Amino acid sequence: MKKLLLIQPSPYDKDRQPIKKKKLYFVGLAMPLLAAITPEDWHVEICIETIDAVPLETDADLVGISTMGHGVLRSIDLAKHYRSKGKTVILGGYMASIMAEEATKYCDALVIGDAEDVWQDLLKDYEKGTLKAIYHKPIRELSTPLPRFDLIMDKAIGDFLPVQAGRGCPNCCSFCSVACLYQGRYIRKALSEVKRDIAQVKALGFKKFTLLDDNIHGDRAYLIQLLEVIKPFNMKWMSQCDIKIGRDKEVLKLLKESGCYALSFGLESISKESLDHMDKGWADPLEYTQLINNIVEAGIDVSTEMVVGGEGDTLESIKRTKDFIEQNKICVPRFYILTPIPGTAFFKEMSAAGRILSDDIYAFDGCKAEHQPKHMSADELTTAYWDLYRALFSYKSIIKRTLLRKDFFKRPVNYLFYTAVNLFYRSHIRKGITPNIF
Ligand code: B12
């Protein structure tokens, strides 16, 4: 039987060792889905490097390697390794897709973006010996078979599995890789398929799932129907979306009733000038507090993703971001330095302005300034970023945000859990590692 090895590599740490974890709480869907669209005459093996040893010696005919952000460096090293062993290597995933020209140097074939409509042709071409360098066919409709979770069930994963109702996002923020691939398209799955997928997660014994969509608020009417589908499962779930959902008390109520307990929001910045410049002018920092209050009052926990180093950011505004997070009692705040990811509109703009400071794109990991900020030096930005993280992950700030809150007794278990998450993040920050949701 033909054999396919699918690898989700782990990014390197500072010593160029792949980051390893005892458990990966947040698993992706790409590998189980690729396995599901692979014809049955292939034997498929999935390796998630964060929790599995990579089989450097393998009898697989074909090796498929995914790429995510700066983790692409590890993907490339693995691709080189397998090619040196005479294996045929396919690259795919976000990062390789948006730096396609560079990525093709390291593989036998590259899949740009969605794999659903090209994967089986690619496998046939491989068998015929007519593999093309690039396969690119963006999906118009999203329809997928059941993901092959059976291939990851014996791995050290968390207590939830991923489900996806839609891909892409109607917003086109200039720094965003999703905007780069989907260009404002938001493609929804038939509700019957989402229902089938959630049913599988439940049947596998999970009480929770995560909805991987980039912005579940991308289509309000669809979201309301989706919540009707989710509610009868009586499961807990979390997701991410734009903060404007906080204006919609009716939807917030339906979300809560359907089992949604936490949402993550890309707030990006407290500077309106920075947001406008990121093509995110629809967001208004002056409205953030009210929207966050509405969401929390609806019984949904709020975590945030923000970037520092936008065009309106100053050293002062970065410091004030700490006050913003504390005043709004954000349980789990995460930050990155605004980074010109190759392929994004922000990269093109910074490049044209001669403001990109390094051409080592593989080092662009979001925790070191790679562009010349407008109101400070790059080093000052990097220092301000780490100072912000250290200040917010002091014991005092953690306690203020997670335990000393009016609504603590409404959801004590959740808040105690977030205290533990904060302490875990704190241990990373003290070692100079940006916390992520691994
Ligand atoms: C779940 C998730 C995670 C999880 C799980 C990751 C994992 N190991 O699987 C965790 C939390 C661990 C994580 C970590 C990171 N992530 Co992440 N993650 C996601 C998220 C939300 C969903 C991924 C997913 O499963 N999507 C559903 C599947 C079906 O879609 P897909 O992954 O795009 O896969 C399709 C195609 O791309 C393609 N494909 C994918 N891989 C391959 C491989 C081959 C061989 C082929 C042929 C095709 C193919 O086929 C799939 C079906 O069409 C995405 C956002 C998103 N929209 O996808 C971000 C996202 C992919 N992550 C991102 C980033 C930056 C990271 C981190 C670098 C963050 C950090 N600073 O640490 C790390 C890197 C981790 C790593 N292993 O390298 C960025 C990538 C941007 C970029 N330019 O590459 C995204 C797009 C988020 C964003 N909005 O910017 N992530």
Write structural notes for this entry.
The structure is a single chain. The chain has 438 residues and is α/β, with parallel strands linked by helices. 37% of the residues lie in helices and 17% in strands. The protein contains 16 helices and 14 strands. The protein has helices spanning 30-36, 72-84, 94-98, 100-103, 119-128, 177-182, 191-203, 220-230, 249-257, 272-277, 285-297, 315-327, 345-352, 378-392, 395-402, 412-430; strands at 2-8, 42-48, 62-66, 88-92, 109-112, 134-136, 160-163, 166-168, 186-188, 208-211, 236-240, 260-268, 301-308, 332-337. The chain has a 6-stranded parallel β-sheet, sandwiched between helices. A 6-stranded parallel β-sheet has the order 7-10-11-12-13-14. A two-stranded antiparallel ribbon has the order 8-9. α9 (249-257) links the parallel β11 and β12 (260-268). α8 (220-230) packs parallel to α9, α12 (315-327) runs parallel beside α14 and α15 (395-402) runs antiparallel to α16. It is globular. The two termini are 34 Å apart. It binds cobalamin. Cobalamin binds next to α1, β3, β4, α3 and α6.
